[in-house]
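User: My instructor asked us to take a sequence, write out its structure as tokens, and then describe one feature of it. I'm not sure where to start. Here is the sequence I was given:
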Amino acid sequence: MRWKFSVLLMLGLFTSSLATIGTAQDRAVLDPKKADADYAIQGEYVGDIVRDGVTIKLGVQLVAQGGSRFLGVGYFGGLPGDGWNGLEPVRAEGAFKNGVLELTAEAMITIKDEVLTIRDNGGGLIGECKKVNRKSSTLGEKPPAGAVVLFDGKSADNFDGGKLDGDLLVQGVTSKQKFQSYSLHLEFMLSYMPTERGQGRGNSGCYSQGRYEVQILDSFGLLGENNECGGIYEVKKPDLNMCFPPLAWQTYDIDFTAAKFDGTGKKTDDARMTVKHNGVLIHKNVAVPMATRAAPVAEGPLPGPLYLQDHGNPIRFRNIWLVEKK
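Assistant: Let's start with the prediction itself. The structure tokens for your sequence are:
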């Protein structure tokens, strides 16, 4: 069933105080208390609507675009990874006009106390969606016995270039220890950069062996391409865009199998990856035929490090560990 998610967002007295000067890194926010008013509205909403007498679960993602602009995305059946039926989501953009964000017509949404209320143009209630703050099912997962703990919040000594922000690891680090095949767990937080777009919005990358990248990017509400969050860069897009809003803690759980080489150095098997993003499977045993773009280590038979890219945007990491395969 296709319902045009045409809406007006009445956001009361909220206004945007986002500065428009300085570099993108200057404007990036890592503390919710320092975010603009739009941040409180951005996020995920879930509830039931009634259309033509049929009750439908609806998931909504509201993405702050800077300057009191928003992207609205509606998913029938629920949010990605939590009920969405896979039908094409409905997208609309708009801007504030006298305190109202107009996306289109046909329906109206008001937001108050983290409840999104949908009404038809006659004022009849269509449904309500409440704001939710999802957490990954693997968030905070503890390393098993025998795991290699690369970062536990106490020291960055296991990384070249390691820097701390309190008890969090700053982007742009390379593990001193090198590995072949393993299962990796890491947690990351994207900075809030509402005025930026595409590759300039919360960009980093998790490179297994310093060779094969699973992209890290603020792709909340986007299509989920191979250069967006969860994508094996330029190789395969994620089966599902599971990116949470910026400033939410997210997880990657990556089962990595190193490429194989014969005695002459000729590759006989590609590297492979199985990836869960926020606890949801997004890649299953995917062959990665070459080192991905910007990899600091060329493809080869020797073990390689874990590399967490600095692409000019502030990203924070915690709880990083791996279990080596025999």
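For the description part of your assignment, you could build on this observation: The chain has a mean pLDDT of 90. Try explaining in your own words what that tells you about the chain.
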